[in-house]
């Protein structure tokens, strides 16, 4: 499971300030976040699309505590979607959105976040693409799934995320495997207590496979989000077993992680989507990537020593 001490840093302003003072931080951030500006992200997206990959763009940020910030996040997504349409990228590039960036944790947050998310879904539809709601920690799982259900009544193409490590996920998977659903299945990136989440890697992998079976046997569009080679192989096998064909499911990986495998899978005829984050609020995202893999941390430390 992800390193707990590192995940705790995700919410520390002090740690963020200290890290920002280190020149090496920038180099590490760039590995996972290709740019802070929208233009950088759209440029990188265009390059990936030209290589035959698809993209989901995430404007970084979470846990908004001011209403006007939630408005700014909505406005950024609207501009981004307009830009994707203008550049002819909307067929291959969609957006991923965190509801806490849209105000979910504010008082009355569910309504606030739903209103902002609805506006983003409208902008996506006008642009000719889709929205996926990222999944955050377990305190907002039920609210996120409720918002997803509300949005899907108007925008059935809206995607959601389920985390295999949550004990509730098998039931959510069964509920969301129906026609038209787009569900991204990931292992889960947050530090969750044992009463709500499995904490053993092997158990999480088994849960992932079991959820994959449900989604692949269902009538929706499963989005297999993992870099784990064994799970990718199992997903391909299950897709074949269920008579699935290219285009009715997809693989997703994060920008900067196993880029060779992303291209190999695409060359083998799979639909592959790269999750592409951008913006200045990269601290939480970066710490989760470092926590997932000790080798990333040693890369960070080596960069520090050589800077
Ligand atoms: P695992 O962590 O076991 O890694 C398998 C292998 O992949 C490693 O051995 C290594 O080779 C490589 N790898 C994995 N992580 C790496 C890293 N950080 N750096 C370098 N190599 C790495 N989570 C969540 O809670 N909510 C969400 O909405 C999303 N959304 C999402 C979208 C997409 C497209 C992906 C791929 C992942 C997410 N996640 C997520 C994150 C997910 O829950 C999980 O934390 C990471 O994907 C790592 O788990 P893996 O399945 O890759 O396996």
From TrEMBL:
Q: Supply the InterPro entries for this chain.
A: FAD-linked_oxidoreductase-like (IPR029041), PRODH_bac_arc (IPR008219), Proline_DH_dom (IPR002872), Proline_oxidase (IPR015659)
Domain Proline dehydrogenase intervals:
45-300
Catalytic activity entry: L-proline + a quinone = (S)-1-pyrroline-5-carboxylate + a quinol + H(+)
Cofactor(s) demanded: FAD
Q: Where are the transmembrane segments?
A: none
- On whether Oxidoreductase is a keyword of this UniProt record, the answer is yes
Q: Which Gene3D superfamilies match?
A: 3.20.20.220
EC number from the UniProt entry: 1.5.5.2
UniProt keywords (A-Z) are: FAD, Flavoprotein, Nucleotide-binding, Oxidoreductase, Proline metabolism
EC primary class: oxidoreductase
* Known pathway: Amino-acid degradation; L-proline degradation into L-glutamate; L-glutamate from L-proline: step 1/2
Protein name, per record: proline dehydrogenase
Q: Which organism is it from?
A: Nocardioides jiangxiensis
